[in-house]
Design a protein that fits this description.
142 residues, alpha+beta, disordered C terminus, binds zinc ion
Length: 142
């Protein structure tokens, strides 16, 4: 048994998280006290900031990146599928980059609700202008 300094109760060792910097290798507070405290901390400004940073760091990890990729909106997936299908059936044709005429292009969707009204941009231009004006005109082959 170990005495929790927070809730002043004797609890089983398994109720305490490991902490190498402590004498007995266990935290002074039991797990439930720690999680209560952590929750309270996350509500403070400091906590919110730390959370944001932690999240950013997490997103840079492979696991975080994968989780982020999975979050791709269903509209986006639908739009990609619609374009892939239209390309296959010849309804839509790839065009050189609208800006620099580079033949290696990717579809840019000004509006996912109209997936076939894509703008073709090369990788570089796509990165440079993440929001090309939809007035550039769609390149739908009719
Ligand atoms: Zn406790
Ligand atoms: Zn380009």
């Amino acid at each position: 048994m170990k005495f929790c300094l927070k809730c002043k109760q004797d609890k089983d060792q398994s109720e305490f998280s490991k902490n190498r910097s402590c004498k007995d290798g266990l935290q002074d507070w039991c797990k439930s006290c720690c999680s209560e405290e952590h929750k309270a901390y996350l509500k403070t400004e400091d906590g919110k900031e730390a959370q944001k940073k932690g999240n950013k760091r997490y997103l840079q990890t492979e696991a975080g990146k994968a989780a982020n990729r999975r979050k791709v909106s269903p509209e986006k997936i639908k739009a990609h599928k619609a374009v892939a299908y239209a390309l296959k059936t010849g309804k839509l044709r790839k065009r050189p980059c609208e800006i620099c005429t580079n033949p290696k292009v990717r579809a840019f969707y000004p509006d996912y609700c109209k997936p076939l009204e894509v703008i073709w941009l090369c990788r570089g231009c796509l990165r440079k202008c993440k929001n090309p004006s939809p007035t550039t005109g769609p390149v739908l082959v009719r």
